[in-house]
Amino acid sequence: MKRTSVALPLLLGFGVLYAEQTQQKTDKPYNVLFISLDDLRPDLGCYGNPVIKSPNIDQLAKQGLLFERAYCQVAVCNPSRNALLSGLRPDTTGIYDNSKYIRVQKPDALTLPQHFKNNGYITLSMGKIYHHSESEPGDDPLSWSEPMFGFGKPYRQWFTKESDDFIKKLKSMPDRGKKAARALPYEAADQPDDDYPDGKTALKAIEQLQRVKDQPFFLAVGFIKPHLPLCCPQKYWDLYPAATMKLPDNYYPPKDVPPMALQSNYEMRSYGGVPETGPITDEMALNIIRGYRACISFADAQVGRVIDELDRLGLRENTIIILWGDNGYHLGENSLWTKMTNFELGTHVPLIISVPRQKTAGQTTKALVEFVDIYPSLAELCGLTIPPELEGTSFVPLINNPDLPWKKAAFSQYGRGRSSSYNATKDPMGYTMRTDRYRYTEWIAPDKKVVGVELYDQQADPQDNVNLANHPEQKNLVAELSKQLHAGWKAALPRN
Description:
Elements: H1 9-23, E1 31-37, H2 55-62, E2 65-71, H3 77-86, H4 90-93, H5 102-105, H6 112-118, E3 122-127, H7 161-172, E4 186-189, H8 197-212, E5 217-223, E6 230-233, H9 234-237, H10 266-269, H11 282-312, E7 319-325, E8 330-331, E9 337-338, H12 344-347, E10 348-349, E11 351-354, E12 363-370, H13 374-381, H14 396-400, E13 410-415, E14 429-434, E15 438-444, E16 450-457, H15 475-487
Helix pairs in contact: 8-11
């Protein structure tokens, strides 16, 4: 069978051999523990940030392979998750924002969990895996053996009297403008973990592990932190003293950047107390940074609870664990907050995989990989056929040899709509490519005209502070990278 998702028969052959050799010791199909975190950028101890307290994810990295340069296809929740779960790129599905869904766009798509279900696995979803809804179109019932578990009831994120009073006051106002009935974008409360949605998700995941431990399972566990609002128990805030917080060094827009490369921070501005226009106060900015870090540690604790139960049940020796964050995140860098950009911070994501009896446990790889690669990789590791329509490349060979020459580039995109939804007939699409050294982006209008170009030297300028695209000395490089961008992902696949 021709497999467009795998670069080389030689590499594919190794991947199948790897799966067969490891599974021979158990004579059971691998289980899959599929863990996602929402809006988690690679700000973790295992990614080199000594400030972040993430002991459970760091431990997982020691037991698996950490991808230093993994990239999502779109830097916002729904299209990123749909690309990962379908193995199809956004221009194939037409999913560019949070308003469209895979089963509507591609009714015959064979999703990643659906493929496992069709091959005898019980597939279960809890928390946020597709998007918010517990029913169609936000979720995909065809992917799961049973109806998904949301976040438990009651669903609460704010708990303090101050937050309650803030929301009541906002609701009583005759004209709230664009504001939703939300409190501040952060809160520390003296509440137990299990009062929060992610605590309830961890409890449900533990319950499901106990229930399905004797059959092949694909258990998808989606934590919503560190997504806004940055609310979690006080004890996690205490890990990051307020006096240690500081604003980013590049708390300003990049130089010579096209206007459509930036966004108005509208997601952050939808929360109470955040000005609808203009700068965010330094006090609020520092609290946002502190709350984001606290929520990472809170989510890390929930990850640890689930993995601890997997170990307690004796399932680790036959279970693949994969952990990923759905998009990158700005915390004031480039004057931006949240995601929805084509910058390195918007598209760069954490990705860790642990496979039983993995010889490369504790190692990292600098290979460029993409979210669409996860589907074919898990299918191959578990001995399933790889659907020929997939648009990713199995990274199984990297699990054995992290230093293999790999993709020449990773591709992402974000359409800058004039409203909350992208309109392909009116709005420019930003196509961005990460090579070994550069990030190159073109903004293309519906009439195919290029209306903006960006070039960042990730070696000399890893924070994307200076756009070099219009510098005369970069003319030849821009032409070369433009040609590579338009050649697309197929031309960037690994070669023998």
